[in-house]
């Protein structure tokens, strides 16, 4: 058989490729072409390779590309099987006068024909050819050779068919196809556009696995695409806007890529464009903002102008998308613009190293206020049937980001929306699994068909907590939140989230947002304790909350790295204990004693005596664990000292318990060992408040303080109230 005959037999694969366009019944095909059946019989009865070659050639000549249907393809497969194509793919000896790749080309053509049948595309004999097929994509050879080009086309046909099956992407990734596709694309040889298309499909289907198996090669493709994007002057730059989000890695984006991407986006967004040109650019910018924050935007005048332009365009798009009546909202574009607005909010509220100058911040806040007004108006029109839609979740998210920083503007509109927000948060809290799914849907809607990077919170309540913390300070919004049942919802949420941090759960895998959410809940409860004490006394949910705080604090204060959360829990518990002092749970029960013992530990370990060079007397200094976070901790500490002081006369058993802990004695000892000049007046006042109440409440406390030179220490620090109390019998 000649080399030309072999090439002709290879056309069988082309027949298989086009067969999906025509699916006549098998009996009709047989009646039109009875010769085909004789040749298939000859193919089945072939005893050696030469006879199989001859029969394949006859079959090829007997059918036309448009005449072969799925059943006929299956008949051909039943006659040929995999053994013959396997030998063709692995043989290293070709007939005289034939290039060595011709036999492989015929083998690939047969596989391409077979793979057009979905069942055969998942056959183990096809899947185990993936590594071999992948090598064909990068094999060197004459780029103008027709047989080689045909083999490459057939190879892509096979791999694409496998990728279209449920588990196909995993098999391709494991078989080294991703790296081969990257190299084929970067080589810009024949079929490189098919390589890119298949890469896009694999990344969309299994991004994490792709990056795990072929990160260096995918980064090389990203560098190439980014450079092309930066240089593009034609319509290809808009096509690249749609491709590039898929090639951004789940980890760090190379700096050179960020520079090219930002430069390309600056040129696009700085021009007058139609919406179909601008929207992909905004979505790419949103993807970068979500993955990298503002790190991809250069510092200086050019960067600040670009960021201002980006946020401005996003706000305009949000208003156009939400305010225009009679048109369908482009949810993917508007959601991407939400991500850009979040970036603007972050930069406008950043005090140090902000990309924006103060006049730019003022201007952008005004523009974002108008866009947020459109978001509020949209949410006011959302009915119960739409509450589980991803776009509603995205709209609540951007509103939550705004309220976390700004509640004074749009106050009337926000108050009108609060009942909806409480109901919405409650709905998603009660259906937590659906809420988590909504979070991923929002990410997909806004950014790309793949994981956008850092995980977005899966519950609406966590998004709203910072804003509600501000709003509970104000009378009007607080009354609305109480009326709508927000405090009860927050208590349930806190208890649920606390369970995630309890013993038996691996806290190392929890996102930081869980602990931050717990702290923010504590701040809201602190606001309610101060501004609505009657609510704390009458609502049973706060009794449950108090019980949880009491049982949790002893273990929490012992855990490294969780001091700030312990401070929130201790201070909140102490303030609530003053209001709930008549509760049976606080009458010296083991839980209450454990809680107050842990609270004393938190309050007593904040300061130590520290020696100073060249001085005989030590100074009062922050202990190492407290020093690094004192800016966030000190308000809670002072409030905790004040709350503990208020609890002493309300709980008769507390003063003896404090004496047994030796806190008053050690406190006086600490004050006696440091220079009075090193103790700030507010510290003196806090210490005196605790010591005075303990001394007044219990005779044994007074005696212990006198034995610790309490009167002398009180005199040195001008603690007149303590000095007078200790002078009494």
UniProtKB/TrEMBL annotation:
It comes from the Eukaryota. GO terms for cellular component: dendrite. Belongs to the neurochondrin family. One of its GO terms (biological process) is regulation of neuronal synaptic plasticity. It comes from Urocitellus parryii (Arctic ground squirrel). It holds the Pfam family Neurochondrin. The gene is NCDN. This is Neurochondrin.
């Amino acid at each position: 058989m000649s080399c030309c005959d072999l090439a002709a037999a290879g056309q069988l694969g082309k027949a298989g490729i086009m067969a999906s366009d025509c699916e006549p019944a098998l009996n009709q095909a047989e009646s039109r072409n009875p010769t085909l059946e004789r040749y298939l019989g000859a193919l089945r009865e072939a005893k050696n390779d030469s006879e199989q070659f001859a029969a394949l050639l006859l079959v090829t000549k007997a059918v036309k590309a448009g005449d072969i249907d799925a059943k006929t393809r299956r008949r051909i497969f039943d006659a040929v099987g995999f053994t013959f194509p396997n030998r063709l793919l692995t043989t290293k000896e070709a007939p005289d006068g034939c290039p060595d790749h011709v036999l492989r080309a015929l083998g690939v053509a047969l596989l391409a024909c077979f793979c057009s049948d979905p069942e055969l595309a998942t056959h183990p004999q096809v899947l185990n050819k993936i590594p071999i097929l992948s090598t064909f994509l990068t094999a060197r050879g004459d780029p103008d050779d027709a047989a080689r080009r045909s083999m490459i086309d057939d190879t892509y046909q096979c791999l694409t068919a496998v990728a279209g099956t449920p588990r196909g992407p995993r098999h391709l990734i494991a078989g080294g196809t991703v790296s081969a596709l990257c190299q084929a694309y970067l080589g810009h040889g024949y079929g490189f556009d098919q390589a890119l298309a298949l890469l896009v499909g694999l990344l969309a289907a299994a991004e994490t696995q792709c990056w795990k198996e072929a990160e260096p090669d995918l980064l090389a493709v990203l560098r190439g695409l980014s450079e092309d994007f930066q240089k593009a002057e034609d319509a290809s730059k808009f096509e690249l806007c749609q491709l590039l989000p898929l090639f951004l890695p789940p980890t760090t984006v190379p700096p050179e890529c960020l520079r090219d991407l930002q430069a390309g986006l600056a040129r696009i967004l700085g021009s007058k464009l139609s919406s179909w040109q601008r929207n992909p650019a905004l979505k790419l910018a949103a993807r970068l903002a979500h993955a990298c924050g503002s790190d991809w935007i250069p510092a200086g005048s050019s960067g600040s102008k670009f960021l201002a332009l980006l946020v401005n365009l996003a706000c305009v798009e949000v208003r156009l998308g939400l305010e225009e009546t009679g048109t369908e909202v482009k949810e993917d574009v508007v959601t991407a613009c939400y991500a850009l607005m979040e970036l603007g909010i972050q930069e406008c509220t950043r005090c140090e190293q902000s990309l924006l100058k103060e006049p730019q911040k003022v201007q952008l806040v005004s523009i974002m206020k108008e866009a947020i007004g459109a978001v509020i108006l949209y949410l006011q029109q959302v009915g119960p049937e739409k509450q589980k839609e991803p776009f509603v979740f995205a709209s609540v998210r951007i509103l939550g980001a705004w309220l976390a920083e700004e509640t004074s503007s749009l106050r009337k509109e926000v108050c009108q929306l609060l009942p909806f927000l409480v109901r919405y948060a409650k709905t998603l809290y009660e259906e937590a699994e659906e809420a988590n799914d909504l979070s991923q849907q929002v990410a997909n809607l806004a950014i790309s068909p793949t994981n956008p990077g850092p995980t977005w919170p899966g519950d609406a309540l966590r998004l709203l907590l910072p804003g509600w913390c501000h709003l509970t300070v104000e009378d009007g919004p607080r009354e609305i939140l109480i009326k709508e049942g927000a405090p009860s919802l927050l208590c349930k949420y806190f208890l649920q989230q606390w369970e995630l941090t309890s013993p038996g759960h691996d806290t190392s895998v929890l996102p930081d947002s869980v602990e931050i959410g717990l702290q923010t809940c504590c701040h809201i409860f602190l606001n309610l304790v101060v501004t609505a004490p009657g609510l704390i006394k009458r609502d049973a949910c706060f009794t449950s909350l108090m019980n949880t705080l009491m049982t949790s604090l002893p273990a929490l204060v012992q855990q490294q790295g969780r001091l700030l959360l312990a401070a929130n829990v201790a201070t909140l518990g102490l303030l609530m204990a003053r209001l709930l002092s008549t509760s049976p749970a606080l009458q010296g029960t083991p839980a209450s004693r454990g809680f107050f013992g842990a609270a004393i530990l938190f309050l007593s370990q904040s300061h130590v005596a520290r020696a100073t060079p060249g001085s005989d007397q030590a100074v009062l200094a922050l202990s190492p664990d407290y020093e690094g976070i004192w800016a966030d901790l000190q308000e809670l500490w002072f409030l905790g000292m004040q709350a503990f002081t208020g609890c002493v006369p309300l709980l008769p058993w507390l003063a003896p318990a404090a004496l047994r802990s030796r806190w008053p004695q050690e406190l006086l000892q600490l004050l006696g060992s440091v220079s009075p000049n090193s103790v700030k007046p507010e510290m003196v006042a806090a210490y005196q408040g605790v010591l005075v109440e303990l001394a007044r409440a219990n005779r044994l406390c007074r005696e212990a303080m006198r034995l610790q030179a309490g009167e002398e220490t009180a005199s040195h620090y001008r603690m007149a109230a303590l000095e007078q109390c200790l002078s009494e019998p």
